[in-house]
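fyi for ur records
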Amino acid sequence: MRTIAIAGRRRITLLLLASALLCSSAHAEDGYADPPMPAFRIETDGFGASESDIRAVLTSAGSELWRFFPEYEIEPFVIKRGKSGPITLYDRNGRGEIVVRLDTGNTYWCQYAYQFAHEFCHILCGYEDDYPGNKWFEEALCETASLFAMQAMSRAWKKNPPYPNWKDFRDALRNYVDDNIKKRDKIHEIYKKGLPGFYQTHKEALTAEPCRRDLNGAMSIVL
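which gave:
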């Protein structure tokens, strides 16, 4: 694939994140990850679940990414209930926090984990309202982050779930990932053309609509 022009700091961050995700899966250990997640707030209105349970799931998902950034600094962030799809907002709130909206609720823990890992990846990428032409690459990485985090969670929960009675839920985490992968039928085109060829075929569509999950979702499987 040709070199992707991304602005200085963010380019470095994206490449570091890509390196962490692509090189570390074979070495991820079972159990909770270190260092601990940075502090974040949760506004529980609308979720229909307790703050402690939501935090347990999000901490488990986020830690599987955060473990590879031991000295990285991020802005404070808050989790809120959204109604039109998960999103990380460009504008900070009145407290100077990044606002992350998750479009899930009740005890749909797989949705919490999948959505949060994706949005937390945006935070790690230095999410900014800048040149959008390469946003597809960030979206592909964030989808990769969701698959990666949930697979790691399913291994960690086998020995050390957030609560003892959640241990058996590890299979649901892995099944959620497997079901998501099965939906990405564009993967067969990548197997045929290779990732560079797939990008060349779809680069205009990716640039115009970077959130095309049929495209960047298939790329995330290969990554």
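DSSP finds seven helices and four strands in the chain. thats all i got for now
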